Amino acid sequence: KQEVTQIPAALSVPEGENLVLNCSFTDSAIYNLQWFRQDPGKGLTSLLLIQSSQREQTSGRLNASLDKSSGRSTLYIAASQPGDSATYLCAVMTTDSWGKLQFGAGTQVVVTP
Amino acid sequence: KAGVTQTPRYLIKTRGQQVTLSCSPISGHRSVSWYQQTPGQGLQFLFEYFSETQRNKGNFPGRFSGRQFSNSRSEMNVSTLELGDSALYLCASSLEGFTTGELFFGEGSRLTVL
């Protein structure tokens, strides 16, 4: 059974610092891994998707890496801004379950001005 | 291009009632998934539909059901509501086949059971 863990559960950083969010999963038979952002009371916004054959993806200030062999992914957010304050979730889709994402519990991020 | 649309956005029900939530996927997306989000359990998978067929189901009681129509729109129903069913219900859609498998989520339907 796939289990996804996110560490830390929460972190607070001053504006301008780089953010490092960690995600680990137990079953390496994944189809993809997605990182999402969720603002309070809102739905999920897709940030980055890494397919199982890829090692990293980049979009603007965001960079996500994937190491299937160790069951880990890391989301880097460069030069954080107060608008980056949100909960960040990682989720994996295994190869035999299309449309079924297993989510971590999320990391709640606060960027202080 | 319109995103995933969920209705209603907010609703309040009492215990024992039933509720139906609706989801319209992104145009061209034929796979629709449903998730329940609560503070205690986080995001949990309910079920996934493709071409009007349920392909995957999460670990929820039979009170939770869904269906998909020929135009890919989907509904989920919860019967005999319990207080613990209070949650944000999220719908996601994706393309099928040899694609990235990226899921796109709606804003959710927030259900409060009194």
How is this fold's topology laid out?
The complex is a heterodimer of chains A (113) and B (114).
Chain A: E1 4-7, E2 10-14, E3 19-25, E4 30-38, E5 44-51, E6 56-59, E7 62-67, E8 72-77, E9 86-94, E10 101-103, E11 107-112
Parallel strand pairs in A: 2-11
Antiparallel strand pairs in A: 1-3, 3-8, 4-5, 4-9, 6-7, 7-8, 9-10, 9-11
Chain B: E1 5-7, E2 10-13, E3 19-24, E4 31-38, E5 42-50, E6 53-57, E7 64-68, E8 74-78, E9 87-94, E10 104-105, E11 109-113
Parallel strand pairs in B: 2-11
Antiparallel strand pairs in B: 1-3, 3-8, 4-5, 4-9, 5-6, 7-8, 9-10, 9-11
Spell the H/E element sequence of chain A.
Answer: EEEEEEEEEEE
Order of helices and strands of chain B: EEEEEEEEEEE
> Which regions of chain A are unreliable across 5 or more consecutive residues at pLDDT < 50?
none
Can you summarize the main beta sheet of chain A?
6 strands, mixed
Q: Look at the structure and give the mean pLDDT of chain A.
A: 94
* Unreliable segments of 5+ consecutive residues of chain B: none
Whole-angstrom Rg of chain A? 13 Å
Form type of chain A:
globular
Q: Structural class, from secondary structure content of chain B?
A: mainly beta
N- and C-termini, Cα separation of chain B: 37 Å
Distance between the termini of chain A: 41 Å
Shape of chain B: globular
Question: Strand share of the residues of chain B?
Answer: over 45%
What does the largest sheet of chain B look like? 7 strands, mixed
Mean pLDDT of chain B: 94
Q: What percent of residues of chain A are in strands?
A: over 45%
